[in-house]
Every structure is written in structure tokens, then in C-alpha cells.
Amino acid sequence: MLISDVARRSGVSARMLRHYDSLGLVRPTGRTDAGYRDYSDEDIRRIFHVESLRSLGLSLREVGRALDEPGFTPAQLVGDLVRQTRERIAAETELLTRLDRIGAAEPAGWEDVLQTVALLQALGSKSAATRQRAALSSTEEAPVPVEALVEAALTETDPNVAGALRWALARSGDAGLALLAPGLAARDAEVRERAVRSIAEIPDDAATTLLKEALADSELVVRGYAAVALGARGVADAVPTLVDMVVDEANDVDAADALGALALDPALADRIATGLVDRLTPGTAGSSARRRLTQALADIPGTTASRALAELSHDEDRAVALTAAYVLKLRDAR
Questions:
Q1: What are phi and psi of 124, to 5 degrees?
Q2: Where is the HTH merR-type domain (predicted)?
Q3: In CA terms, which of 44, 163, 243, 267 is 20 to 30 Å from 117?
Q4: What is the pTM of this model?
Q5: Angle, alpha carbons 108-114-118 (nearest 5°)
Q6: Do residues 269 and 179 both lie within one domain?
Q7: How would you label 143-161 residue by residue, b for 16+ Cβ within 10 Å and e otherwise?
Q8: How many CB atoms lie within 10 A of CB 93?
């Protein structure tokens, strides 16, 4: 079969067939009287084998080895191809993500595109200072795409950079909430904590709803950040977690402040005082926990808290008794 017929039937161009011939990859077994290449059925089968292996990403040199070396084994080569393909997919995915983010920024011109690219690159820098400047430079005129901010906020370990990212997300309004929400279900507790702290900076009813969901988290540190934020928003659902935080000395000062703020609502004051007093029973909490609970009663108005403090001023635990007596003096001086 002449080269033109082979090209037509195989879909491989005549130029490529000549290239295969020059490399010794597929050499026609015959020649016509006029000197033209004459391909046999076996030659054509080899052409299809070559094309099949090329479709897997093998180079022509690797194809030749695969077809001609008797001892050639595909396992290692296939493993290398898998690794290379994954790296290529990762690079292409990163490029697609970057393009999506640039498109979401709705650039008016190439100057805007270049500015967005620079911000995205800075946000991925190894330098914490550079990442922080990128987050703080996000403005309405030149915003960092919210998708990039969320991704960075959920992975950032430097506290200063994390704070800047939360600030930038808060400035973007509720646009990031839908992207932050899946972070609440992450397997890694640190990611869930970052999601909660980012959501807590957004003053939105939808954010409050997400924070309420976070109160069910298995880790106290995660639900603790949600509870403190909800306490500042006047949400009574946070009370049990806030009391737990006081007992466990988990950000207990902020928890006590949040309980005091909630207790300004007369309808909640006795409920909060009762929640604290119930945990004061000797044997259910250690001495230091009982002392912290007593201190937390200081900012809770109402007779329930006052009666509990009066009783605690005679507690068998001297540290608790002294704390209660001191708190009572402060309350009387107000």
C-alpha cells in the first residue's frame, strides 16, 4: 500500500510516516518498481501500535523501545507517565483557577489583569510579610478575588497574615460565606477553626446561622470561637459552650466577657447564672475551674448570681471563698 493510501486510512500524515521511516520506527517492508514506499499489512498494524502508545504520552523514543526491546517492561514507564500526567493536570488546574479568579475580578483592561495577577502571586508567596501586604492591599478598586482570599484564609498558619485575610474577607461582605461554609465540615480541626474565625468577622445573618451550626463541632476550640462571636451578637444558644470554656480554661476570659454581655438581657441573666452555678458543685469541677466560674459570676446581674456568690464566700475551698468575697465587694461598690 502506497504512503498516500496509508495516510488516508490511518489518519497519520504522509509527513509523519516519512518521519517514522527516518527514525526506523515504521519502515515499509517494500518498494515499488518506481521506488515508492510500499507498506504491508504488518507495517500498518505497527503504525496503529505506534499511535496507540503515543496517545498514552510516550515519546517516539519510548515507543521504539516498547515495540523493539524484548526485555522492556512497561511498569516503571507507566508509573512515570502517571506522575507526569498528574503534575500536568495540577499545573493546568492551577492555571484554570487563576484564570477563573481573574475573570471574576472583571478586569477593565490589561492593567487590571496584571494587577490581579500580581496580587495572586503575592498571596501565594513564601514570605508572610508579602502575603500580609497582599491581603491588606485588597480594596474595592483593586480587590483580591474572594475565592483566593477564602483559600488562603483556610490554609494560613501565620497569625498576622490570617488576621489580615479575615479583615479582607469581612470587607468583601457576604461574598465569601458560601465558600467558607464547606470549611466547617473539613476533617482538619484547624481548618474548621479558621473557617469559624473568618465567618465570625462577617456581620451577616447568614454568618450567624453558620456560627450556630459550628456550636455542634466536636472540638471545643472550634465551637468556642463560634460561641464567643455569637455571644457578641446576643445569641443565647452560645451559653452552654461559653460555660464549658470557663470550666476548661479554653479562652475563658473572652468566654466570661461574652457571658457578661449576654447577661445584660434580663431574660438571660438568671439562665446564665444558673448555668455557672450548676457547674460549681464540689466534685464536678476542680478548684481552679470553680474559681474561674466564681469570677465569671462577677458580671452577671440578678439575685441568682448574688445569692450564689454569698454562699461561695463561705466555701470550704479558701481560694473560691476569697474570690467570691472579693467579687461581692465589687458588686456592692457599683
A1: -100, 10
A2: 1-69
A3: 163
A4: 0.69
A5: 130
A6: no
A7: bbbbbbbbbbbbebeeeeb
A8: 10
Asked if residues 223 and 211 have their Cβ atoms less than 8 Å apart, the reply is no
User: Which SS3 state, helix, strand or coil, does residue 37 take?
Assistant: strand
Q: SS3 for 29?
A: coil
Q: pLDDT digits over 58-89, tens only?
A: 889 888 888 888 777 777 778 888 888 888 78
pLDDT in tens, 187-244: 999 999 999 999 999 999 999 999 999 999 999 999 999 999 999 999 999 999 999 9
Name residue 292's amino acid. Answer: R
Query: Which residues, 6 or more positions from 127, have their beta carbon under 8 angstroms from its beta carbon?
Result: none
| DSSP states along 91-114 | HHHHHHHHHHHHHHT--SSHHHHH
CA-closest candidate to residue 294, choices 329, 327, 266? 327
Q: Are 190 and 172 in contact, with CB atoms under 8 Å apart?
A: no
Report H helices in 124-158: 128-136, 146-155
Asked if residue 326 is part of any domain, the answer here is yes
- The Cα 324–Cα 43 span in angstroms is 97
Closest CA to 31 of 16, 43, 45: 43
**Element containing residue 31 per DSSP (H, E):** strand 30-31
Structural domain including 8 reads: 3-72
Please report, as a single letter, which amino acid is at residue 121: Q
Question: How would DSSP label each residue in 199-266?
Answer: HHTS-SHHHHHHHHHHTT-SSHHHHHHHHHHHHHTT-GGGHHHHHHHHHHTSSHHHHHHHHHHHTTSH
- Asked whether residue 87 is assigned to any structural domain, the reply reads no
Q: Are residues 158 and 234 in the same domain?
A: no
Q: What angle do CA 237, 241, 242 make, to 5 degrees?
A: 95
Residue 29 dihedral angles phi and psi, to the nearest 5° = -75, -15
Length of the chain counted residue by residue? 334
CA 35 to chain centre: 66
Q: Of 172, 191, 213, at which residue does a domain stop?
A: 213
Cβ partners under 8 Å of residue 124, min gap 6: 131, 152
Helix (H, G, I), strand (E, B) or coil at 38: strand
